[in-house]
């Protein structure tokens, strides 16, 4: 095996929870080393403290905030080039704020490095409010593809549901009906919520999974659902031999100013007590509304129609919400870990129809926000590892003995002896990183990659359409006309 010397760009909460522990875990079986990290100068002290606490020794590079141009400043590029040479860097993990993804990806591609990058491919300040900005997503993607095409290195987008064993089964079941009966997905409803409750002045001050830069849920966890929907529908068309030539999108956002109408200052005072609430918030509803001007989306909804020669043939509805059921019941945010320690609880649902032949439903609902340890009860509804797949088939035509098949998370992980506690959905993130390591060490080739950059055009396009429609106040858009011939 070839040695893998990795540069980690961004030592945030996700890197501390997933990337750094996974490198340590896989270094026992693969020649992989964390050789360098890149972080903002503003986070120098906390990063140094973390590395010291974890006994991590590597090159440390601290940089100023990037300018959003999509390219690294000359001095930053020179520093990275120098470390690339001195540490023999051949792979890079990009885990920065998504507005900086493009700059580091461009640098890594030009240096022929193997790449794994967090989602989304790119995003921009104020994209939730300016329709012209949304048009940049596909252009960014095409520029990256132009740099990537023909190269021997890999570029993996860390969309972990592509590695989830449940979604692998779903793809196989959809493929089977598409192949046998030549019918694509005819309708699909999907929703994802993760209970991110931000109190009014936190919306102004907190930058993690923020709204104060003019983007929100769609650029955060929303991309995962967008990718699932785009990927499943697109492959069902490819497998069935049918095609769509246009996708019409109507989207609307709920932004922080709408939250004031849902929960006013008087409501918060009733919940927490007038005097106690005054300690964390001094602004009136009118002042908050003014402060929230041009903020990003808290929740998003979209109605999408896939068309062929002007006729709608597949309908998709998506609901992406931060403002949802949560376990947070306290006023002061858990600043030390807003990722997993601030009451976030995930609920996810999919309902997929393939005409009269098949209906697949996915139900994944948690009730707890503490997910580091799990037991047998966590396979059940509300548990940390609840994930049920219900497959209904017209067995008079398809030939199965039963009309209904149920598959649970326990079924999916029954052979994983190394995964007895904790949040098992995290194992999909580890699987993505192991695939990256296997490619980087020469054990697999591009044909075996589950989430290669080249397969994300349809998701990027759909993300752009959602932002374009919503930022134009719900105007129906098919600006990014696309068919399976282009996006496959």
Top keywords for this entry?
Dihydrodipicolinate Reductase, domain 2; 18 helices; eight-stranded mixed beta sheet; 2 domains; 14 strands; Rossmann fold
Would you summarize the structure shown here?
The chain has about 500 residues and is of the alpha/beta class.
**Domains (count):** 2
Instruction: Please count the beta strands (DSSP E, at least 2 residues each).
Output: 14
**Integer-rounded radius of gyration:** 23 Å
The CATH homologous superfamily of the largest domain corresponds to Dihydrodipicolinate Reductase, domain 2
Mean pLDDT: 93
Level-1 CATH class name of the largest domain: Alpha Beta
Span of the ends, CA to CA: 32 Å
Number of helices: 18
Strand order, sheet with most strands: 8-9-10-7-11-12-13-14
- Helical percent range? 25-40%
Strand content: 15-25%
Q: What name does CATH use for the topology of the largest domain?
A: Dihydrodipicolinate Reductase, domain 2
| pLDDT < 50 runs, ≥5 residues | 484-488
CATH architecture verdict of the largest domain:
2-Layer Sandwich
Report on the structure:
It is a single chain. With about 500 residues, the chain is an alpha/beta fold. The protein has 2 domains: about 5-120, NAD(P)-binding Rossmann-like Domain (Rossmann fold), CATH 3.40.50; about 160-255 and about 290-420 and about 450-485, Dihydrodipicolinate Reductase, domain 2 (2-Layer Sandwich), CATH 3.30.360.10. The chain has 18 helices and 14 strands. The protein has helices at about 15-25, 45-55, 75-85, 100-110, 130-135, 135-150, 165-180, 200-205, 220-240, 255-260, 265-270, 275-280, 285-290, 395-400, 410, 425-440, 455-470, 485; strands at about 5-10, 30-40, 60-65, 90-95, 115-120, 155-160, 185-195, 245-255, 300-310, 310-320, 345-355, 360-365, 390-395, 405-410. Strand 4, helix 4 and strand 5 (about 115-120) form a beta-alpha-beta unit. Helix 1 (about 15-25) packs across helix 16 (about 425-440), helix 4 (about 100-110) packs parallel to helix 6 (about 135-150) and helix 7 packs parallel to helix 9. The longest helix is centred in the middle third of the chain and has 19 residues, at about 220-240. The protein is globular, with a radius of gyration of 23 Å. Mean pLDDT is about 95; it is low at about 485-488.
């Amino acid at each position: 095996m070839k040695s893998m010397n990795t540069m980690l760009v961004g030592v945030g909460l996700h890197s501390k929870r997933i990337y750094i522990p996974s490198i340590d875990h896989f270094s026992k079986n693969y020649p992989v080393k964390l050789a360098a990290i890149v972080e903002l100068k503003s986070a120098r002290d906390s990063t140094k403290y973390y590395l010291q606490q974890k006994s991590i020794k590597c090159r440390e590079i601290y940089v100023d905030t990037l300018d959003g141009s999509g390219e690294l400043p000359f001095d930053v590029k020179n520093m990275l080039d120098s470390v690339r040479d001195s540490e023999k860097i051949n792979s890079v993990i990009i885990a920065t704020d998504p507005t900086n993804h493009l700059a580091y990806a461009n640098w890594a591609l030009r240096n022929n490095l193997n790449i794994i990058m967090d989602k989304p491919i790119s995003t921009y300040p104020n994209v939730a409010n300016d329709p012209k900005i949304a048009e940049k997503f596909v252009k960014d993607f095409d520029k990256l593809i132009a740099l990537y095409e023909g190269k021997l290195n890999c570029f993996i987008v860390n969309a972990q549901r592509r590695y989830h064993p449940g979604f692998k089964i779903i793809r196989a079941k959809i493929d089977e009906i598409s192949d046998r009966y030549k019918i694509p997905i005819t309708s699909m409803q999907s929703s994802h919520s993760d209970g991110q409750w931000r109190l009014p002045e936190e919306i102004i001050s907190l930058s993690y999974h923020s709204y104060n830069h003019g983007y929100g849920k769609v650029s955060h966890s929303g991309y995962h659902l967008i990718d699932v929907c785009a990927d499943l529908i697109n492959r069902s068309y490819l497998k069935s031999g049918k095609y769509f030539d246009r996708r019409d999108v109507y989207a609307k956002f709920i932004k922080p100013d709408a939250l004031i109408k849902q929960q006013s200052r008087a409501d918060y005072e009733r919940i927490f007590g007038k005097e106690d609430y005054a300690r964390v918030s001094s602004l009136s509803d009118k002042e908050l509304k003014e402060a929230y001007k041009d903020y990003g989306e808290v929740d998003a909804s979209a109605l999408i129609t896939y068309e062929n020669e002007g006729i709608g043939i597949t309908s998709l509805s998506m609901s992406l919400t931060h403002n949802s059921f949560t376990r947070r019941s306290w006023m002061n945010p858990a600043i030390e870990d807003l990722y997993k320690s601030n009451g976030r609880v995930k609920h996810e649902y999919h309902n997929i129809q393939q005409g009269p032949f098949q209906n697949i439903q996915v139900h994944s609902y948690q009730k707890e926000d503490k997910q580091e340890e799990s037991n047998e009860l966590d396979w059940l509804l509300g548990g940390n590892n609840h994930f049920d797949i219900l497959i209904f088939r017209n067995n008079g035509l398809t030939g199965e003995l039963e009309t209904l098949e149920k598959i649970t998370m326990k079924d999916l992980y029954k052979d994983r002896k190394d995964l007895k506690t904790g949040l098992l959905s995290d194992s999909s993130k580890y699987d993505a990183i192991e695939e990256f390591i296997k490619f980087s060490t020469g054990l697999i080739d591009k044909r075996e990659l589950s989430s290669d950059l080249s397969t994300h055009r349809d998701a990027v396009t759909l993300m752009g359409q959602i932002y374009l429609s919503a930022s134009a106040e719900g105007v129906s858009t098919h600006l990014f006309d696309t068919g399976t011939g282009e996006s496959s």
